[in-house]
Structures are given as structure tokens and as C-alpha cells.
Design a protein that fits this description.
Length: 452
């Protein structure tokens, strides 16, 4: 068995995926091919992985390459985990929109930053699809890269259907169980929607509907009830214990407000969720009110202790190999052994959610066994939830159309349809902002910079 990781020079995530693979005895007799355009980064991941493998005495082979075709040749599983761009494009994606009043938290899903991140990635995905069709046509493709929905939708239109994986469902379900002080193994839930904006349609403990408790607890801590009572914000740490951060659990005014308005809790953090809708980031004062503690502007602006973090993971995996909550290795294990599992994946909408557009990327429960990844059909979403999703899908659809046709105008259309951008800017301002981003990223967008 061969596993190809494309974008294997990442700071920690590829090594964590390797640790997940090695935690399953049935997956250890394999070759892991680590590809990155920066060979030294792929070699860093390779050397750390070999140290873990040698420590445990496994037969796993790990190789590093900067040649994508070499990595993909004969692969059974292809894992995509890369960012197309550099620290400068990260800065541009956020700072030019901010100059126009569009304050994105991350800018990797929709919005100006998400659209331009996808436009840079699209030619690379096109090349990967061509290589897969030639070198490993039967491989299971697993995409971890954002913007998830656009990337997966584009690959599917080109003829290779990946399953897109995120950790929003896992993290949020853990956080909600902790908020309610219920053991995680006691809860059951049903989720459907789109990536970063899927909805907990059910949240239960046996026959008990937990939504009434969820409204009460989240409302008292973060919602209207707290504001009406004019009490100080809850200072308790309600975050997930696995790497607790402000990513979820400690400041949930946004997601609680969304639940109170639309009836259901959704999967992406309040920090992220605030940039997907037009309600929470209209002014610096409103941003500070809803998101009192910001993430660092971008990972590129953080102090990166690459060696220290790598050594931390190596030490952890030497001591104990245990799969994380990421679904990737579970998919591989189920396909190899036939053990049935349920995961949440991003897949094409072929009638799965009938009140979302056909062929868009939806996030639904999927059965996995030796037959591969088999999406389930949850049926229609509550109409208000589908309507919220469609505002984001509009952006995705036009960006994918721009990549498929090379029509620069569709990039303007995509950004103009972004809910936050449309709430803040005129059409003339949007065009000026997009033109400025095109010019600043000209070297990355050669197929789209010429006027149509």
C-alpha cells in the first residue's frame, strides 16, 4: 500500500497524519511518499517520521520528494494538505480587504481572501487531477486543504472526486458535550450542511433532546439571556481540553446568536463563523463585542518554533501511538480492513441535500468500509439553514466557474456575492478592491490577469 501526502512540508499536520496511520497495525506495512515543492521541508517531516518508526521497530517506508508525479505513481491514497501562496499572499488576502473595511478573521473559506486563495490553488489542483488520472486512477483522494468546498467542487468537476475532511464536526460536538457537562460517549448527533457551516440538526442523549438544555446553557453564557440580564461575560474555560484555545468554547457569542436566530448550532468556531455572515463584523466596535480575543492575524505572523513542535510530536508518538480525531487514517483503515465506520465528509451534492444546489460540495455523514466512502442522504435542511448555506454556496459556485472558464469577471461576481463584502462595499468599491488584489497577486494568477 502506498500513501502519498501532497504538501508534506507543513509544520505539524503531516506528521500528525503519519502518527495516525502508524497507530493502526494494519496500515504500518506501507510506503508513505512525502511530496513538497520545498524538498528540505518534506525531508524534515520524513526524518521525524523515521525516528518514530525506528523507535517502534515498524517496517513502514517513508520517502521524501519534490516531484509530484513520483509521489503519486501507484498511490492507493492521496492526501492533499497544502497552501498555495506564501507569507506575502497571506498578507495581501487580508490587508487589502481590510483597507476597504472587510475585516476577515482568516480569509480561507469565502470572502475576498478565500476566493483568491482558491484561484491560486486551482491550476495546481488541475495538474494533480491530470496526474492522478494517469498514475493512480483508483486512489482514494482525501483533501484537507482550504477553501475546502471550492477545492473539492473544482476537483469533482474535473473528474476526480475527493472526500474533503475537516475537524469542525468533531471539535464542536466535543465542545457542546463539555458545555452541557455530558460525557462525550453519551451523546448522539446528526449534522448536515456545507463545510464550516454545517448544522447540528439533532443533538441527543438517548431519547433526550439536548437542544432545550443547549439553548439554556449557551444562552446564559453567551446569548441574549446574558445580554438582557446585563451580566458580565462568563469567564470560565468551557473549551475543549484537547489543545484548548479560543478556537471554540471560550467565546461563543457568534454561534449562539446564529442558533438563537436560525434555530440550530453550526460547526465552525465563532471566530471563523463571524466572517461568513453579514452581521458580526460591520465595525471595529462590533468585532470587539462579538470576538473580544482575536487569533493572531495569521500563522505567518506567529513565532514558529518548528523544531520544538516537531520534537514534541516525535516524543509523544514515541511514548504512545494513538489516532487523533482526524478522519483520514480511519478512512484508510476501514477501506483496508473492511471495518465499518461513520465519518463526516465533504462530497458532491448529487441529491443528498435537495434544497442545496446540485453538484455543490456538502458536508454529510458518510459510511466507510472496503467499498470506500459512501455518502448518506440526510434530505432537505430546515429552510432557513439551507438559505444561509446558499449565500456561501453562491460565492463558491462563481469562484469555481472562474477557475473552469478562466473568466476574470466571475472572480468579481464571487467576491460581490460574499455576504460580508456585500454588506460593507458598493459594487464599484468591490471592483476596485478585486483589481488591487489581482495586481498584487499577478505572479500567482497569470491565467486570469489579462482582461477578458
Amino acid at each position: 500500500m502506498k500513501i502519498a501526502i501532497i504538501g508534506a512540508g507543513g509544520y505539524v499536520f503531516p506528521l500528525r497524519l503519519i502518527g495516525d496511520v502508524l497507530s493502526f497495525p494494519e496500515l504500518r506495512d506501507c510506503t508513505i511518499s512525502l511530496m513538497d515543492i520545498y524538498l528540505d521541508r518534506a525531508e524534515r517531516t520524513r526524518d521525524a517520521a523515521r525516528e518514530i518508526i525506528d523507535h517502534h521497530g515498524f517496517s513502514t517506508s517513508v520517502k521524501a520528494t519534490d516531484d509530484r508525479r513520483t509521489a503519486l505513481d501507484g498511490a492507493d491514497f492521496v492526501i492533499i494538505t497544502f497552501y498555495i501562496g506564501d507569507d506575502e499572499t497571506r498578507r495581501i488576502d487580508k490587508e487589502i480587504p481590510l483597507k476597504y473595511g472587510i475585516d476577515q478573521t482568516v480569509g480561507d473559506t469565502i470572502g475576498p481572501g478565500g476566493v483568491f486563495s482558491f484561484m491560486r490553488a486551482a491550476p495546481v489542483y488541475e495538474g494533480i487531477v491530470d496526474d492522478i488520472e494517469e498514475l493512480c486512477p483508483n486512489a482514494q483522494v482525501i483533501n484537507y486543504a482550504n477553501p475546502m468546498a471550492m477545492n473539492c467542487w473544482f476537483m469533482s468537476e474535473l473528474g476526480v472526486t475527493p472526500v474533503g475532511l475537516c475537524h469542525s464536526v468533531q471539535n464542536t460536538s466535543h465542545m457542546l458535550a463539555q458545555q452541557l457537562e455530558i460525557p462525550y460517549d453519551d451523546i448522539q448527533f446528526r449534522v448536515a450542511g456545507i463545510n464550516h457551516q454545517a448544522w447540528f440538526l439533532e443533538f441527543r442523549r438517548g431519547d433526550e433532546d439536548l437542544y432545550p438544555r443547549l439553548y439554556q446553557v449557551m444562552g446564559e453564557r453567551f446569548g441574549r439571556a446574558q445580554q438582557l440580564a446585563n451580566v458580565a461575560p462568563d469567564s470560565g474555560d468551557h473549551s475543549v481540553q484537547q489543545g484548548a484555545t479560543t478556537y471554540e468554547g471560550t467565546q461563543e457569542r457568534v454561534r449562539t446568536a446564529i442558533m438563537e436566530a436560525f434555530g440550530y448550532f453550526h460547526t465552525e468556531s465563532s471566530h471563523h463563523a463571524s466572517e461568513y455572515m453579514p452581521y458580526f463584523r460591520k465595525s471595529p466596535e462590533l468585532v470587539a463585542e462579538y470576538i473580544p480575543e482575536r487569533w493572531p492575524p495569521h500563522p505567518a505572523d506567529r513565532v514558529r518554533d518548528v523544531e520544538g513542535r516537531t520534537r514534541e510530536y516525535v516524543a509523544r508518538f514515541k511514548e504512545k501511538l494513538e489516532a487523533s480525531s482526524e478522519y483520514g487514517a480511519f478512512i484508510m483503515h476501514s477501506m483496508v480492513t473492511g471495518q465499518p465506520r461513520v465519518i463526516y465528509g465533504n462530497v458532491p451534492n448529487h441529491g443528498l441535500i435537495p434544497n442545496l444546489p446540485e453538484r455543490c460540495t456538502v458536508e454529510v455523514a458518510c459510511l466507510v468500509d472496503s467499498n470506500g466512502v459512501q455518502p448518506t442522504a440526510p434530505g432537505p435542511l430546515p429552510p432557513q439553514c439551507a438559505a444561509v448555506n446558499r449565500t456561501n454556496i453562491n460565492v463558491q459556485e462563481l469562484a469555481v466557474e472562474a477557475a473552469l472558464t478562466g473568466d476574470r469577471e466571475h472572480v468579481y461576481h464571487a467576491v460581490a456575492l460574499d455576504p460580508l463584502t456585500g454588506a460593507m462595499l458598493t459594487l464599484e468599491q468591490i471592483r476596485q478592491m478585486v483589481d488591487e488584489m489581482f495586481e498584487a497577486e499577478r505572479d500567482w494568477l497569470t491565467e486570469l490577469t489579462a482582461p477578458i
